[in-house]
Amino acid sequence: MFDPKTTCIVVVGAQWGDEGKGKLVDVLAERADLVVRYQGGANAGHTVVIGDKQFVLRQIPSGILHPRVTCLIGNGVVLEPENLFSELDSLRERGIDTAGRLYISDRAHLVLPYHKLLDAASEKSQKLGTTGRGIGPAYEDKYGRRGIRVVDLRRLECASAILQDRVNRANQLLALMGSAERAHLETHIRLLERLAPRLLPLAADVGLLIYRALQAQRRVLLEGAQGALLDVDHGTYPYVTSSNTTAGGAAVGSGIGPTKIHGVLGVVKAYTTRVGNGPLPTEAKAPDGERLRELGGEFGAVTGRPRRCGWFDATVVRYATRVNGLTGLAVTKLDVLDSFAEIPVGTSYRLNGEVCEEMPAEVDALGRVEPVYEVQPGWLKPTGDARKLADLPGAARAYLDRLEALSGVPVRYVSVGTRRDQIIEVTP
Ligand code: GDP
Ligand code: IMO
Ligand code: MG
């Protein structure tokens, strides 16, 4: 995707998350200088497989496995510091040196233990199926202008005074929600004291670092988390996450202007999955849904929850193409379909007897739509060794052509297995 005029690319999920963004970012990072996470937090689980080693990255950008690449965590992320440190420690134990090549925005907001208590308590009534990482409450504090940011650790006395107010407030809310849990001020103060010496040396003006890198013609990848249908504005509200997962969020969440972004790669599975609650129109019935789950290893990288599985939904991907301004598509997990003789593809919906080609705003309506399917012939051959389009069986190529036509955006990458080398780059 990179060329002399295309030096800043966003990689986003174009379904409900877990599309294989981590794998694609790792592949593209080979040619990148900077990789930046710009929203979400430890709710993400991005898997990279190199040889027989698997890495699941939560907050650290998926470019970290390339020793030449510098990784940044942008202001739009809600950072869970302890989780970050355990990620760093486990990378070090596995021989990945991150010294001098991981920085965190001084403007990023912190996720603290009271956020997790609030997340758990509100799940009891809201039942969104969150990851329980405190993401929603941390963004609520950010937009309520009550957040605690990385930069606040520079003045611990002030941060402690603010904490007193936040912990009290959290405890009032917990009581209101009928939870017996309480947050403890001392624990929070000790936590910030412990975090500061390790976090502050990593703090930086990330927007400035990216700006300078782009001025110097360096190549920058902006790595999205979650997917378009989990975007707080454009997703299946209220069954969404609390950030803008779509490409517009990349500029805001990394601290650069939108005119600095040259391309947007949307990652989609060759089928569809979702974890957590909310509508999934093309969800497959047993036994196909279970077969997809088994073959695709569809269990959450963070929570281990089984993912709900179904067929490719072109209405979703057309919508994601529009709201992200996608310039290319990466289709992952084609190999998972190798043994299906027939593969349904959802081309549009029917709602109240009428054809519906656009995503309804109302979540109940999306829950009621009936997908219109066309059935594509399967290829019944393994695809995992293909390294160029011509290596794929004709029916697999026809399947990809159909996804491309229905989505309205060119397929630039096809992934045929978990490993780094199992990728096809489609040259236009
Ligand atoms: P992300 O959150 O978008 O980075 O995706 P996850 O890592 O949560 O989930 C994607 C899963 O699919 C991971 O287990 C990957 O190792 C795996 N994966 C990625 N690409 C492929 C592929 O082309 N084929 C197969 N079989 N697995 C893949
Ligand atoms: P990656 O980056 C899939 C889902 C949760 C829940 C909803 C809200 O790996 O693709 P939250 O904890 O964010 O408040 O939960 O969003 N969710 C994800 N689903 N992949 C993810 O991340 C997700 N992050 C959050 O399951 O339905
Ligand atoms: Mg994931």
Strand numbers in spatial order across the main sheet: 9-7-5-2-10-1-11-15-19-20
Shape descriptor reads globular
Find the count of extended strands (DSSP E, 2+ residues): 20
Main structural class: alpha/beta
Describe this structure in words.
- By secondary structure, the protein is an alpha/beta fold.
- Helix content is about 30%, strand content about 20%.
- It is built from twelve helices and 20 strands.
- It has a ten-stranded mixed beta sheet, sandwiched between helices.
- Helix 3 packs across helix 4 and helix 5 packs across helix 6.
- It is globular, with a radius of gyration of 21 Å.
- The relative contact order is 0.15.
- The mean pLDDT is about 95.
- Guanosine-5'-diphosphate binds next to helix 1 and strand 3.
- 6-O-phosphoryl inosine monophosphate (IMO) binds next to helix 4.
What distinguishing features does this structure have?
428 residues; alpha/beta; ten-stranded mixed beta sheet; four-stranded mixed beta sheet; 12 helices; 20 strands; globular; binds guanosine-5'-diphosphate; binds 6-O-phosphoryl inosine monophosphate; binds magnesium ion
